[in-house]
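So, can you check what follows?
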Amino acid sequence: MKKLAAAALAGTLLVSVSSGCAAFTDDSATSADGVRVAAAFYPLQYVADRVAGDHASVENLTSTGGEPHDLELTPKETADVARADLVVFQRGFQPAVDDAVDENAEGDVLDVAQVVDLVPFRDHGVESDEDDPHFWQDPLLLADVGDAVADRLATVDPDHADDYEANAADLRSDLEELDAEYADGLAGCERSTVVVSHDAFGYLQRYGITMSAIIGLSPDSEATPADLARLQQLIQDDGVTTVFSESLVSPDTAEQLARDTGVGSEVLDPIEGLSDETADEDYLSLMRANLSALEEANGC
């Protein structure tokens, strides 16, 4: 009797396991249809989505509301890297993604730091050995990434190469229009100094404005009393009307600096990622909102 029961149990387990394997195989086969792209953070996801169109699925490794600088990947996100036909990332910006790419990526890999010319980070006007990673604040550099993504997708999926090229051209057209809006909008401003929460906007300085940050490249840094005293004096000397905080990090320090100096406080989005409040926006709309805020603050 015991042998019969054991045999029946074994048969039941075999059926269950077989069914489970079949279900897993079916799901995998379905999800494997089409090209898979893993993008490390939002601006890269935006570009990949625009260039890929309907021919690829794009996964963002940095979830909505997540701060990309200190990203730690979940097992699911690591699996996204492993099974992607193309991973688009920026080496040196997110160490966890760098490690996942080195250890797990089996498809093609595009490091955008090899596509764009990153500018050196300037700390209080002094050029450092560290590059500023926030290149997407320059729309034309993001357009260059779009062209590179199109080239890589054409290699992965040559049947749709013409579509990828056309989509990248459409993206470039939109970004060139945005670039012209910034150049026109920030010309002839009453003030050129902009005080921001962290140093994520250096690439905007080519439009004739000067960025002064409370903290450096990482939003996890903390301002020293000397930093705050320097900025208080700068705000007074340059007639700054607004201190800008951000969407993904605490605004407390920026808002306190604004109160201490008697000026306003507004949000300038570094567009490193989307928040719950900006989930329905996209790169273009957020950049235009930033432009409006800068024009208002600087009397443009």
About this structure: Residues 1-32 have pLDDT under 50 and may be disordered. The chain has nine helices and ten strands. The domain at 189-298 is CATH 3.40.50.1980 (Rossmann fold). The radius of gyration is 24 Å.
